[in-house]
Amino acid sequence: MQIKLIAIGKTDNSNLITLIEDYTKRLSFYIKFDFEIIPDIKNVKHLSEAQQKDKEGELILAKTQTSDILILLDENGKQMDSVAFSSYLQKHMNSGIKTLIFVIGGPYGFSNALYNRANGKLGLSKMTFSHQMVRLFFIEQLYRGFTILRNEPYHHR
């Protein structure tokens, strides 16, 4: 199985980039992982929030196949602790799917088309985080999930 993370807009904070690269490298020892960034949409001040979400949704959907499992990282999604998340990953690996895609939306969330296509929603916290920070937090949780599955000491129970 391959895991892909899709996000809208590049990160300009070099400290975050360094940490994301570190956890991405660590994660590569466990699974094929791809972090894909879709560039910010140009001229957004001329678009409504709904139009911006629709354009971002089209770009995200263009990166998916019908056989992919698509999970939106959404504030109203199911929340779980790290151990439960590792089980969630294991369940998907056992199901025989080829690609599991997680998506971090733009500043206004997701389009209706993305919600309709999604196979599920995950919430990282009831707190609000910047879209830049969520990337790091989520990749770290993926890494943590795989260390839990391997009974490695990174996650202390």
TrEMBL record:
Catalytic activity line of the entry: pseudouridine(1915) in 23S rRNA + S-adenosyl-L-methionine = N(3)-methylpseudouridine(1915) in 23S rRNA + S-adenosyl-L-homocysteine + H(+)
Self-association state and partner proteins as the record states: Homodimer.
Primary location: cytoplasm
Listed name of the protein: Ribosomal RNA large subunit methyltransferase H
Compartments where found: Cytoplasm
Organism: Winogradskyella pulchriflava
Superkingdom to which the source organism belongs: Bacteria
CDD domains registered for this protein in UniProt: RlmH-like (cd18081)
Family statement: Belongs to the RNA methyltransferase RlmH family.
Cleaved signal peptide residues: none
Residues noted as binding S-adenosyl-L-methionine in the record, renumbered to the chain: L73, G105, L124, S125, K126, M127, T128, F129
Matching NCBIfam families: PRK00103.2-4
Entry keyword set: Cytoplasm, Methyltransferase, rRNA processing, S-adenosyl-L-methionine, Transferase
Function: Specifically methylates the pseudouridine at position 1915 (m3Psi1915) in 23S rRNA.
E.C. code: 2.1.1.177
